[in-house]
C-alpha cells in the first residue's frame, strides 16, 4: 500500500463538456504526479463514438505533441497543455455532431504506474439563436415594451411643445421690439409736422412784411 501511494498519479477531467458545431471546444485534463516530470512522460487521448465501437487514439504526446495523422480528427486536434504545470488539455477544432462520444485522457510518468482513467463525454449540438428567449425573458419584454413606447411618445410630444413655445417666444419678442420702435417714429413725425407748421407761419409773416 505504501508503494502504491508513493507511485501514484492523479488525473482530473470534466465529466461532461458541451460544444457547438463549428466552434472550437476545450477538453481539459490536469494531472498530479508524485515523481518529477521527465521526457518519459506520456499523454494519450482516445475516443469512442457515442454509438459505440473501438477506442481510437486521436492524440499522443511525448516531449512533443503528435496529433492524429489519420481518422476523423485529422488536423482537428490542437495541443493546449503544459506538462510542466500538470496540464494535458487539448482542443477540438470545428466540432461536428458525429464527434459526440467519450474522450479519455491517459497520463503516464514513470515510475508512476498507478493512476485513474477519467472520462469526458462530449455533447455537440447546433447553436440556435444567439439569444434564446426564455419564458421569463419573453414575459418581461411583453410587460416593459408598452411602457417604453409610452415614454417615447411622451418625450416626442414634450419636444414638440417645447419647440412651439420657443417659436412663440421668439415671435413675441419681435412684436414688442416693433412696438417699442414705433413710438420714437411717431414722436419724430410729430416733430417734423411742428417744424413744417412753424416754417409755413414764417413764410406768411414774411409775405406780410413785403410790400411788393
UniProtKB/TrEMBL annotation:
Translocase is among the record's keywords: no
SUPFAM superfamilies noted in UniProt: Immunoglobulin
Alphabetical list of Gene3D superfamilies matching this protein: Immunoglobulins
Membrane topology note: Single-pass type I membrane protein
UniProt cross-references to PROSITE patterns, sorted A to Z: IG_LIKE
Compartment list: Membrane
Highest taxon of source: Eukaryota
Membrane-spanning ranges: 136-156
Ig-like domain ranges (all copies): 22-125
Pfam families linked to this entry: V-set (PF07686)
Keywords: Disulfide bond, Glycoprotein, Immunoglobulin domain, Membrane, Signal, Transmembrane, Transmembrane helix
One CC-aspect GO term: plasma membrane
PANTHER family (alphabetical): MYELIN P0 RELATED, MYELIN PROTEIN ZERO-LIKE PROTEIN 3
Family: Belongs to the myelin P0 protein family.
Name assigned to this protein: MPZL3 protein
Gene: Mpzl3
